[in-house]
Amino acid sequence: MKRLICLLILILVGWIFVPPAKAPKNTNSCFLILAGEPIYILNIKDPVLRAFVWFESRFIEDIVNPVSGARGILQILPPMIKRANSILELQGSNLRYTWDDAFNAKKSIEIWYLVQNYLNPTYDVRKACQIWFGIGTQYDGLTWIGYEREILILLNS
User: Fold this and answer.
1) What single-letter DSSP state applies at residue 137?
2) Is the pLDDT of residue 32 over 70?
């Protein structure tokens, strides 16, 4: 029993004080390191999407931005849900996404590809940054240009 309690304390301390590790570039699986052990949580083969997910959420599915309210692995906001649904409507689909779908990794990725395929058919990273970040300046001073810089660093690391 003492060993189990010690192990749980070590895991908790490691979880609190050890930052998540970035998935190696040459792997198809994305993972975080928790107490020295990899935990595979998503299988994202697309390096562009993997970079966006890493930057936005560090692969944490239920994360919420305390300032903007953005949700999930891709930090989706209501205007992105609205945009995805308008694209679906234009395509004649009866499918619609809800605000709660932002917490679903699979549906968030579907939204990503729906929007990117429609607005960015060449899958240009710069355009992807403009689409996903939006216009203007974020609460912390970040603009889409700084956002693009961060995504490019992740893609080239």
Assistant:
1) -
2) no
CA-CA distance, 126 to 116, in Å (whole number)?
12
> H-helix or E-strand containing 7?
helix 2-17
| Number of other CB atoms surrounding residue 44 within 10 Å | 21
25 and 100 fall within a common domain: no
Q: Are residues 59 and 133 in the same domain?
A: yes
* Per-residue pLDDT at 28 exceeds 70: no
The token pair at 114 is 């729906």
Token code pair at residue 110: 């579907």
pLDDT at 145 over 60: yes
Total domains present in the chain: 2
User: Which pLDDT belongs to residue 64?
Assistant: 96
- Are 74 and 144 members of one domain? yes
pLDDT confidence band for 26 (50 / 70 / 90): very low
Of the CA atoms within 13 Å of residue 47, those in its CB half-sphere come to: 13
pLDDT, average across residues 37-54:
77
54 and 7 part of one domain: no
130: CATH? 1.10.530.10
Neighbours of 96 (CB within 10 A): 11
